[in-house]
Specification:
251 residues, mainly alpha, Penicillin binding protein transpeptidase fold, 6% strand
């Protein structure tokens, strides 16, 4: 009888540890579920990317009614229970003064007409300045900023950068430089609830984007890096540098 009892006891592997025959090894079902999740996740990412590509292609002819930044600001105001009023008026590039166009390019992307979406030289300079402990600065081009405004808002993450990296060449190919500049000037944030060149000129100088002068254009371009904190009338030094840069570029 003792022999029969001992024959059904768990097998002893070593002192104090026994093998439990009731515990079954991990079944392939869990691994299959993980693979299925990853597969559907990648399919979802691919679908979202495809939708973004279609939006960029359509944006060659259709003016965007809103952007991710617009929606983000509206959501922030709703969460904080604050009133929100946005001014957003899309105008063709021909209705934006040349000095205004040039001021924005001089301030944000001096090699706009030379690069194909990424300014590797500006990125290298920005990285070196940041590593040396200088002022934190970015090397984003107008195309990168446009893609970020349209799809990703103001947040920063590795995933966002990766997605942006894949969409920037699509924007360059589908839109072209003139349309990229037109879209950027019309959707970029220029203050609390102020979007686009026309709204910025109306809000700060009570004039149109076509009627703005050179100095005013430089002051508005100077607030683009921090549009919620800067004011054009405080940008004396930086707007002067922008005008000098415009002159150096033959504008």
């Amino acid at each position: 009888m003792r022999g029969c009892i001992s024959s059904i006891q768990p097998n002893r592997l070593f002192w104090g540890v026994t093998e439990n025959p009731d515990i079954t090894p991990e079944t392939p079902h869990r691994k299959s579920s993980l693979r299925s999740f990853l597969r559907w996740f990648l399919v979802g990412v691919a679908l979202l990317w495809s939708v973004a590509v279609l939006i960029l292609v359509a944006a060659r002819w259709i003016d965007p009614p809103t952007t991710a930044v617009h929606m983000e600001r509206r959501l922030q105001a709703w969460i904080q229970h604050k009133p929100y009023y946005d001014r957003y008026e899309f105008v063709p590039l021909s209705q934006v003064a040349r000095d205004f166009q040039h001021a924005v390019i001089a301030a944000e992307d001096v090699r706009f007409y030379q690069h194909h979406g990424f300014d590797w030289h500006a990125m290298q300079i920005a990285a070196e300045d940041n590593m040396e402990g200088g002022r934190i600065r970015g090397g984003s081009t107008l195309t990168q900023q446009l893609v970020k405004n349209l799809f990703f808002g103001t947040g920063r993450s590795i995933l966002r950068k990766g997605a942006e990296f894949t969409l920037v060449p699509v924007a360059e190919l589908a839109l072209g430089k003139r349309r990229i500049l037109e879209l950027y000037l019309n959707v970029v944030e220029w203050g609390p609830g102020v979007y686009g060149a026309e709204s910025a000129c109306r809000s700060y100088y009570q004039t149109s984007a076509l009627g703005i002068d050179r100095e005013q254009a430089a002051r508005l371009a100077a607030i683009l890096p921090l549009p919620l904190k800067r004011r054009p009338d405080h940008m004396n030094r930086y707007s002067g540098l922008i005008q000098e840069r415009m002159s150096q570029m033959g504008w």
